[in-house]
């Protein structure tokens, strides 16, 4: 007896009369030498002993158990209280809820509703409440006499199975993204790989039918083989044929595309793209058929969110038959996507798949990471992200070609003739390879989860660098060349420099993602842009150092063949034995220029906030329970645990943003100048992008968008600064910040109060 | 488990009246029914009696009610306990009925709980709120909460949630890191005076831990056993953590993370601009 927590009900407990009765009369069989005794009296006594608020429970009764508990017979919680609708598929079928012989309009409605269910399933709802709310899907063999319906359902089932397998394999989803659980429903059926044969047969006869209609319309002689028309009105036959055909062909192309994308090493990409293009064409035809179908049968009460092209409810769908399969949770019905949303969903899915297929197979790691970031900008759904992840990491290899560690060796070799192959370097690179794999996988997850997981990646990466630094520091001391690290970081060390650069990149991505997820509130903008600026600068530092090493390596090769004496840009190399780069300009790649634009925008924003605050255009309010220090600590706690970018304290932040010696006018001017130079660099970036022919198409497209957005941000903020400055000091304007033009860089909106 | 919970009535609470609203601390079972009725009415997710009792029986001093002319118009339900290396407060449910929103009632209820948590030695306080619940987000923002994480489709209606977190100042580093020590505003009404009452329009933040499907998935996060430890921890004045212990504990590999040292070791010169 262990009275402790709460008690269900009103505090009085009763042993049911039935239990008492059975206890009194039943004789218990003796099994396994177990002796059974009647405990009714004991339980009754115990119940009488309980007061209000007491509960008998096991030791493991926790919040989780408390929350999972359901109160039986409460209709709000007990799904079994809802006794309306059919209880089983059999009952539904027997009652005639899913007739096999349907009119052609009814079949089209079933197809459309099923497609909407499929999209809803992809969006994270349970299979039982979506695709398998279709009675025809539950009893697919029953539909054999209706060849058209049968073929459509069969290929739907095969496609669902492909999708689920891919998602499970990629393992980048949370329970909220996707329900992999199949509820024991008939999703994987034998012989579904032959679904195309069934479909082709139906398609062929329909195509013949269509030709027949067209022939009849143009007055040609009817073909000898007479096919039974889909419906009675010869006028409509052609439109109906076309409506059905585009639906079948869309399904076929989608299925083909998914099958081709499963081929290893992206070998099926080219074929998959052909089918994707075809599927998009057919999808457009499906969309266009809505006009004809809805005009045929106008709804009495038009509803906005119908799941079919005709706007009519489809026959043969019943959510209640699977009620018993659902988890023991409070009853909850779900909203199936509308017809329009369904079409939009599949259109985006196909476009996203197309972008995955366009990925070149010889991408360097740096571009590959940028590709994933840019791919994610269009907010692809899980199905596409899963396919991307499966393409990028096949059998533990990057794009199925080489291990990440080998790829790192190659990347490093480009900059250095003799990469050290000692055990220490090997171990370090192996660890880097493991973390890079983890990073790529993480970057394919949904952005909210991604940011949380990136935190973990950053921490591990920081730790790895710290350990490596420690062992290197020791060996440096031994050889008497210590002190190098203090001045330049790891810029002269190819391996460490590479790892540090990657870590900085992850940190900037982590901070930028916070804007996209709207994690920062206006009173944190200043500190976030300030820290972001710091991370971007460190990243730039490593990028330029790498570029310099690359040039040096080239120079060693060409050995004084180029006598130009142009002034070297970038940072001069300190010390070292290789001849310093003096006669060649460091190339500013689009990625370096993009960083520079971001840096300018950050700085512009920091100074703009300083100016507006000093000019009393924005007022910072104090909070009761903590101060800016705690918010800073909370925000950057993670980044304080890593070695690069160098951890910055709250004191550093306060010192850097205090601007004691500048007048308000000067602050406005500095901010203005930063946005001006941002615009200049955006121009340079624009030119660099157009001059780089071998740029990945997804990356290029995103840069073009970036350039346009950043230009707008810089321009609008310059105008806002001018207005605020001209208004004179004091609270005469209301300034707010919006992310309407760029997901990560705010524009100031100035209004009269 | 195994200890009988002392009767909640022991913590005698006398109602305090402000703007015609009376604030009372949870006293006994008779108040359970109105609290449950209020929450059941305002929040879409149904909670079982076990859920209410879990919170209210174990942390009666973290449950407050706001009443107007004898009617319960708002309530807050919280808990606190050890979470990894920190002692953490958690706001589970907060409800103010529609006609009474915008009067600072929710801010007052939250403030009262935060004060108890701070006095009990909490390092931080967390909660979840829908990303669309502008009223709740503004309220917590004004109190110093930061949006620590976003949780994808957290609620069963498909809406994302933010995990909000408030960090209480740590006495030991407040003096060493703060350039100018801020005057701590101890006035409970400061927030109300500053006029944050226009933000309460949609104030009913769902209790995140209690959306049912979610329970299953967040098992690992919230499986905090109702242990004896809980009983000990809720004693007022209990101070569970020490900053340095936390720092060492965080690092699984046994390295010390002293950020000041790191700063000196890696003071790198950084190229400021390109040209």
Offer a few descriptive terms.
heterodimer, A: 753 residues, mainly alpha, 4 domains, 24 helices, 4 strands, globular, B: alpha+beta, Aminopeptidase, 11 helices, 9 strands, disordered N terminus, N-acetyltransferase domain-containing protein (chain B)
What does this molecule look like?
The complex is a heterodimer of chains A (753) and B (275). Helix content of chain A is 56%, strand content 2%. By secondary structure, chain A is an all-alpha fold. Chain A has 4 domains: 68 residues, no CATH class; 250 residues, no CATH class; 159 residues, no CATH class; 188 residues, no CATH class. In chain A, the strands form 2 sheets. Chain A has a two-stranded antiparallel ribbon. Chain A has a two-stranded antiparallel sheet with strand order 3-4. In chain A, helix 7 packs parallel to helix 9. Chain B is an alpha+beta fold and 275 residues long. Chain B has a domain of 108 residues: Gcn5-related N-acetyltransferase (GNAT) (Aminopeptidase, 3-Layer(aba) Sandwich). Helix content of chain B is 32%, strand content 22%. In chain B, strands 1, 2, 3, 4, 5, 6, 7, 8 and 9 form a 9-stranded mixed sheet that branches. In chain B, a hairpin with a 2-residue loop joins strand 1 and strand 2. The radius of gyration of chain B is 20 Å and the shape is globular. At the A-B interface, helix 3, helix 16, helix 17, helix 19 and helix 20 of A face helix 2, helix 3, strand 7, strand 8 and helix 7 of B. Chain A: Pfam families: Mak10 (PF04112), TPR_NAA35 (PF25789). Chain A: This is N-alpha-acetyltransferase 35, NatC auxiliary subunit.
